[in-house]
């Protein structure tokens, strides 16, 4: 028994006049390539990807992944604490909740930020992107 899709295709083919030549579908799937060609394709694509990432890094761009996202969020919290800007109270409250059993931890963190011992990691990329 033919599948519904194949049956539909066959019915549509019957509507096309016989003198019309239908293009043959091309194999576009990487999985259909022989092993050697597939490996070469993947190696080429990986090299292209690495080149793009290297160029971005040279231009001051940061790779978008879980690590850099966490670093950027930590940087934002550090800058809020350092400046005392609106939102710093929320960061302080969060630190108090996280370190509830270590009362001095939030105070120590805040003191380290104020002394410049805790610095944003990605800030250099922000200033490079703006210039």
Describe this structure in words.
The chain is mainly alpha-helical. Helices cover 65% and strands 0% of the residues. The protein starts with a helix and ends with a helix. The longest helix is centred in the middle third of the chain and has 24 residues, at 35-58. The mean pLDDT is 86. Keywords: Plasmid.
Task: Please summarize what this structure is.
By secondary structure, this protein is mostly helical.
Structural class: mainly alpha
Radius of gyration: 29 Å
Quaternary organization: single chain
H/E series: HHHHHH
Number of strands: 0
The portion of residues assigned to helices is 55-70%
Shape: elongated
Q: What fraction of residues sit in β-strands?
A: under 5%
- Give average pLDDT, whole number: 86
Tally of DSSP helical segments: 6
Query: Cα distance, first to last residue?
Result: 65 Å
- Which segments are poorly predicted (pLDDT under 50) over 5 or more consecutive residues? none
Sheet with most strands: none
Secondary-structure map:
Layout: H1 4-15, H2 35-58, H3 66-83, H4 88-98, H5 104-115, H6 123-130
Helix pairs in contact: 3-4
Output the keywords.
single chain; 131 residues; mainly alpha; 6 helices; 65% helix; elongated
């Amino acid at each position: 028994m033919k599948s519904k899709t194949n049956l539909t295709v066959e019915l549509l083919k019957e509507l096309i006049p016989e003198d019309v030549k239908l293009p043959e579908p091309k194999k576009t799937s990487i999985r259909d390539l022989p092993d050697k060609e597939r490996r070469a394709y993947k190696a080429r694509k990986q090299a292209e990807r690495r080149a793009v990432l290297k160029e971005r890094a040279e231009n001051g761009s940061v790779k978008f992944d879980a690590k850099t996202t966490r670093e950027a969020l930590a940087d934002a919290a550090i800058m809020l604490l350092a400046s005392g800007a609106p939102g710093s109270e929320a960061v302080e409250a969060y630190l108090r909740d996280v370190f509830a059993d270590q009362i001095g931890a939030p105070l120590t963190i805040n003191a380290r930020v104020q002394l410049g011992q805790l610095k944003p990691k990605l800030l250099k990329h922000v200033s490079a992107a703006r210039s």
